[in-house]
Structure formats: C-alpha cells, structure tokens
C-alpha cells in the first residue's frame, strides 16, 4: 500500500482553498479551503460559538467569502477565524484530506429506535471515532479488522468533521446538506463520507443489511462505497443480531426526477462521496447493538480501513451497483430557520 506522505500533521486542521501558503511544520505549499470560528468570532454582526466550520468560496482583501452551515453565503474577517490549509500536491495516505460527516443534527434527529435512541447521536459518536482514527498512526489487522495504535499507517494530513464533537452543543447542531458537500469540494477532499443509520420496513437477513449510497455517474464514488460495504461486513461479522435489510448487496445509486443523483450530498459533491448506512436502528435488536461502544468502534474502524484502502490501493470489490429511480415526493426540509451557532 502507498502510505507515503509526511507523517507529521500539517498544522491546525489543514484544508484546501484558494491561496498558496506554507506552515511552520510542513513547508510544502498549501491553500486555505475552510475556516472555523473562535469563541466570540463575529459573523453577520453576531458573536458565534467556537469551532463552527465554514467552507471558503474565495479569499478576498482582509477575509474570506464563505458558505455557512445554513447554506448561506457570507463574509468573515481573517482576524476572526482559524484558517485550515490542505496540501496542494498530495502523495499517499499521509497527505490525504477527508471530510467526515455525521448525518442529521438538531433539530433533525434522523431515525428514532423503538426505545428512543436517536440516529443523530449515534452518527456523531461513530463519526468522531473515525476522525480520531484518521488523526493518529495505526496498525491494522486485515484478517480481523482490528485497528490499533501503531506505525504502519500514518495520520491523514487533514480531517474535517462537519459536526465536530468539541463544537457547539457537543456537535449536535444543524448543518445544511449543500454545506456538507460544498465543504468537501472547497478542500478538495480525497473522500467525503456521511455516517448514517437506516430505518423502515425490511426483510430478515442472515447478514447485516448495511447499505452504501453512491453516485450513479462517478466510478470512484462507487469504488469507495464498495470498499465501505466490504469492510463493514468484516467488522459486523463478530456481532449476533436479528439482521434485516433490503434486497441485493447494498451498493445503491438513486436517481431523482431531474435525472441527477437524488441525494444532495452526492449530487453537489465534486469529490468521491458516499452515504453509509450501518444498520437498521428501527429494529429493536439492532438498536440495542447500536447503543454499545463495541459496535460504534467497529463501525468506525470499518470506515477507517475502507479509506486507507481507497487512497492507498486500487482495490475495487466486485459488488454490483443497483441504480434506482427515486422520487419519494413531499417538500424537503427548509433551512429558513437555521441559525449559525451563537455564543452562549
């Protein structure tokens, strides 16, 4: 595997943007692609909470034109933010940039299990574990799937959480779908992964019904999704649950009535993107499993291994993509009442 690149993380959450810069710890050229607030940073005349991410659309005199978490364009003064830089030229996993998206977020809690477990909570925990794994050096047992601190795989250069667990309200805040994908575009992410859990009527299965939603038009998105499914099956094989799911192998591309990818984060993304559905939280047995640290760590390790393989190898699992025409009807959620988190 090509795990090359500088093993030293390149400064504060490095990302991709529009201006060439250098950092003290890594003199290779970088560019600013995202910024985050400090406590009390002023945006649109209002003090904001710390660690709110913004996608950089352009660098302008004295600041940045940005897209905020409510999908609105705005402007931030350079002295109000912490810039994030990504390497312009990348070689190997140690130079890679990832955006890890915890699906949903207050007030949208996603699916709710029979005993009240909220999907958004589980998504955030799993995503935070993925961020932690990507930010350190590890060894991988490819037979069992276990991931341990070590030296075989270097930390990724840049890892960005759309809902950082050390951000406002412990990461439980609203984030627009367009923003999520636009952030990945702005930093030129090597991959965008949206962590989710499923719900709804299903068939009983002998194996987990995990699914990966990918682009119908991007073969690298499809390769990423296939790797996710392969690694999830390895991670979840240790668990005994009443599994359920749909028909087929779980690699799905959905097309909307406009002929484009149905899911916004897939349609807007200009980088390889996947929505991963771990298990069916609507199942009582699987909800109980989703409450455990063991399951959440296994999910995170599966995502991590898939990303290592995606960047470091040409692996392409033999899983067929099922393309579906999809139009559930009804209005999408309005972002009119969305608020960029403010300083408490």
Describe the protein in words.
The protein has 344 residues and is α/β, with parallel strands linked by helices. Helices cover 22% and strands 25% of the residues. Strands 12-9-13-18-15-17-19 form a seven-stranded mixed β-sheet, with helices on both faces. Strands 1, 2, 5, 6, 7 and 8 form a six-stranded antiparallel β-sheet that branches. β6 and β7 (73-77) form a beta hairpin. The termini are far apart.
| Strand percent estimate | 25-35%
Please mark out the parts with pLDDT under 50 across 5 or more consecutive residues, or reply none.
5-24
Overall mean confidence score, pLDDT: 92
Number of helices: 6
* Class from helix and strand fractions: alpha/beta
Q: What is the CATH topology assignment of the largest domain? A: Aminopeptidase
Number of strands: 19
Keywords:
22% helix, six-stranded antiparallel sheet, globular, Aminopeptidase, 344 residues, SH3 type barrels, seven-stranded mixed sheet, 2 domains, alpha/beta
Write a brief caption for the model.
The protein is α/β, with parallel strands linked by helices and 344 residues long.
Chart the SSEs and their pairings.
Blueprint: E1 20-21, E2 30-37, E3 42-43, E4 46-47, E5 53-60, E6 63-67, E7 73-77, E8 81-87, E9 97-102, H1 119-134, E10 138-140, E11 147-149, E12 158-161, H2 177-186, E13 191-198, E14 203-204, E15 211-213, H3 219-236, E16 244-245, E17 251-255, H4 264-268, E18 273-280, H5 284-290, H6 293-312, E19 322-325
Parallel strand pairs: 9-12, 9-13, 13-18, 15-17, 17-19
Antiparallel strand pairs: 1-2, 2-5, 2-8, 3-4, 5-6, 6-7, 10-11, 14-16, 15-18
């Amino acid at each position: 595997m090509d795990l090359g690149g500088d093993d030293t993380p390149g400064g504060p959450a490095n990302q991709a943007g529009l201006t060439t810069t250098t950092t003290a710890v890594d003199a290779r050229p970088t560019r600013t692609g995202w910024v985050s607030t400090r406590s009390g940073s002023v945006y649109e005349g209002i003090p904001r909470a710390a660690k709110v991410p913004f996608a950089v659309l352009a660098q302008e005199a004295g600041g940045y034109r940005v897209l905020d978490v409510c999908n609105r364009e705005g402007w931030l003064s350079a002295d109000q933010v912490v810039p994030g830089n990504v390497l312009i030229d990348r070689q190997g996993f140690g130079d890679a940039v990832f955006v890890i998206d915890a699906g949903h977020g207050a007030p949208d809690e996603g699916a709710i299990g029979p005993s009240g477990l909220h999907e958004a909570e589980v998504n955030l925990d799993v995503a935070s574990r993925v961020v932690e794994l990507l930010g350190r050096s590890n060894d991988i047992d490819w037979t069992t799937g276990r991931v341990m601190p070590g030296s075989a795989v270097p930390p990724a250069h840049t890892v960005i959480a759309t809902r950082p667990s050390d951000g406002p309200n412990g990461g439980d805040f609203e984030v627009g779908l367009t923003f999520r994908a636009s952030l990945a575009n702005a930093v030129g992410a090597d991959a965008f992964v949206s962590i989710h859990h499923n719900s709804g009527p299903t068939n009983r299965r002998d194996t987990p019904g995990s699914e990966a939603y990918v682009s119908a038009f991007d073969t690298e998105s499809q390769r990423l999704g296939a790797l996710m499914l392969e690694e999830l099956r390895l991670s979840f094989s240790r668990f005994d649950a009443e599994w359920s799911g749909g028909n087929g192998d779980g690699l799905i591309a959905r097309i909307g009535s406009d002929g484009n990818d149905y899911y916004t984060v897939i349609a807007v993304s200009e980088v390889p993107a996947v929505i991963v559905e771990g298990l069916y939280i609507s199942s009582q047995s699987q909800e109980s499993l989703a409450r455990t640290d063991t399951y959440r760590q296994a999910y995170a390790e599966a995502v991590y291994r898939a990303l290592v393989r995606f960047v470091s190898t040409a692996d392409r699992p033999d899983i067929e993509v099922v393309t579906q025409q999809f139009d559930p009807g009804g209005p999408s959620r309005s972002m009119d009442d969305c608020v960029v988190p403010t300083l408490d």
